[in-house]
Amino acid sequence: MTTRISFIALAFLLYGLTRVADMWLDIAQFQNSRDLSVAVVEAERMERNNRPTKLRNQVRLALNLRAKGLLAWERISLANAIVRYSSLHGHDPLLLLAVIETESSYRKKVVSNVGAVGLMQVRPFVAKGLAHEMNANPKVAQSLYDPETNVRVGAYYLAKLLRRFDGDLTAALEAYNQGPTSVARSIRNGRKLRAHYSRRVLKARDNIRRVFLPEI
User: Fold this and answer.
1) Would you name the residues annotated as active-site residues?
2) Is 52-211 CATH 3.40.50.1100?
3) Tens-digit pLDDT profile for residues 66-92
4) pTM of the model
């Protein structure tokens, strides 16, 4: 009788130990799964934090290959400005690169026959009119030869045009080139927009992406 009870007790003990072992295995699997989830979240966070630096380096690479008229430190400063103001206004940084390439071929001191100045060919009266909205110095129009100032004003102006034309990138780009009054009039009168400029900019953007920056 005593032997039988001892055997039963031993069986229950073994069963209990098995259940405990199973429980610990479940806990370990859950912990591993949780650790994996934490690792995934951490990796995603690190990627988000590293993306501005990675993006800045890629933009700098494009400038090194295409903006050879600028000094090395100017290309670094310009890459920083493009990434900063793209992020601030929700632009694709490659779009700003394409506008700069189309407007000025990266020549910071170029002036058009209508008085547009610098990398993004900003007209001084436009810069002066935007100064208050941008919380900028009213004399910002006098600093358009400076690449960072030019990109700051140009990026803001393009964002404003995108808002005015309800996010229509073609219309905003044509307005950047032709003037918003002309484009608004064409839309109001039902006329088809001349899209030569916007096609050039978007083609330049796509070429930059394809050749130099396939990851963006």
Assistant:
1) 103
2) no
3) 999 999 999 999 999 999 999 999 999
4) 0.75
